[in-house]
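Design a sequence for this backbone.
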């Protein structure tokens, strides 16, 4: 199933925290970055948290976000 962007974080550390929160709720997710996220800096586009389309609403609710 294709994955879509749920939100962005300025660095990989924040992204990993959110990914852990989703995992605790049984929601699979992946982090994608522009290559600088591994360095812990978000000078380009930051880190994108991706989820399956079917998980968009539950993932947004778990993180306290409202999907657009």
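Sequence:
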């Amino acid at each position: 199933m294709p994955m879509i962007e749920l939100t962005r974080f300025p660095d990989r550390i924040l992204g990993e925290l959110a990914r852990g929160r989703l995992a605790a709720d049984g929601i699979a997710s992946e982090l994608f970055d522009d290559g600088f996220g591994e360095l812990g800096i978000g000078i380009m586009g930051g880190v994108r948290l991706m989820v399956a389309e079917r998980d968009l609403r539950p993932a947004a609710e778990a993180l306290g976000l409202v999907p657009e």
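The chain has two helices and three strands.
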